[in-house]
Amino acid sequence: IISSKTWLYDLFMDQEWLDTLHMEVGMFYLEVKGFNYKLTQTYSTVTPFFLECLKRHQDDIDKKIKTKEDVGSVSNLTAEVFGFARKCAFPWARSDFVYMPLNIGGHWVLLVLAVESKI
């Protein structure tokens, strides 16, 4: 939820860092653009929370709380991969690239996963 009008101004000011909501909206925009314009190079996006959830799952594996095979039971992870997370989401298996925002110490980095072979 956008709480004030200044939220949009933060996108154009160099005094403020972008927050998670800015990245969420940016990823959604890319997703909708790819869906509506039927681009020849297909891509999918994930929410900023996807990598956080994946890291928590890996931490549980490291602590022997879960196994690698349990990742299929984490519905928000599998929904992202299979394209069920949002209306305009695209399955990774049919994508050329997957764009993933990653927050590293207050800075955002865009990770690009190149999908070599499609189903």
UniProtKB/TrEMBL annotation:
Signal peptide location: none
Keywords: Hydrolase, Protease
Keyword Transcription included in the entry's annotation: no
Pfam families given in the database record: Peptidase_C48
Keyword Ligase applies: no
GO process annotations (BP): proteolysis
Domain Ubiquitin-like protease family profile, chain residue ranges per copy: 1-119
GO molecular function, one term: cysteine-type peptidase activity
Family that this chain belongs to: Belongs to the peptidase C48 family.
Protein name: Ubiquitin-like protease family profile domain-containing protein
